[in-house]
Amino acid sequence: MYVLYAAHMPDKVYECGLDAAIDVVGGKWKPMVLWALATCPRRFGALRRELPGVSEKVLTQQLRELERDGIVHRAVHEQVPPKVEYSLTPLGVTLERALAPLGEWGEQHLDHIVAVRGAG
Amino acid sequence: MYVLYAAHMPDKVYECGLDAAIDVVGGKWKPMVLWALATCPRRFGALRRELPGVSEKVLTQQLRELERDGIVHRAVHEQVPPKVEYSLTPLGVTLERALAPLGEWGEQHLDHIVAVRGAG
User: What is the DSSP string of A17-28?
Assistant: First the structure.
């Protein structure tokens, strides 16, 4: 295990690649944003309808963070009214693929997860 | 996308397997606990030394949740003083393997992640 200090962020220390990856994709909505955008680009409203329960404010914030991290691309098409579309960058595509096995694990063990958490 | 309601937990709704998996493994320390236990079983103190910065209280809580979720096994060996060891269950091994590609993605893109976050 190695420790990496980011010069500009003294509080930000990653112990390993997994720690860094989870920092990028962590939070309830980001993995699902990636999952939704993996099939095709989406406008904000369409994306929001795919993620039931997310507020406009939270989704905007998550998209901005993913854009800053180079995972999501925001394209503004000059037309009237302007059309804004979100899509995965090439880096975002690799992240979405790296998340796939975890998603499959969750699908396979969904009954178990619900059972242990329901009984807890 | 499907919506699953857990009967005993009306607030707990999983939109997909990935959502459920992240609920099990989410948080800063759980993936690293899995990573540490993947090589061999660990006593509490050894585990804590592998995770610099985690408090005793937080690590105890995370281990209890992982035990409840069937990911980690807590074995008490009857000796003086008693020896308590944590290890991955077979289910935990499958989860750790499903996380591996995400860890590899993080390793590969660590410089990028630090750069964009340092500059942000």
Answer: HHHHHHHHH-SS
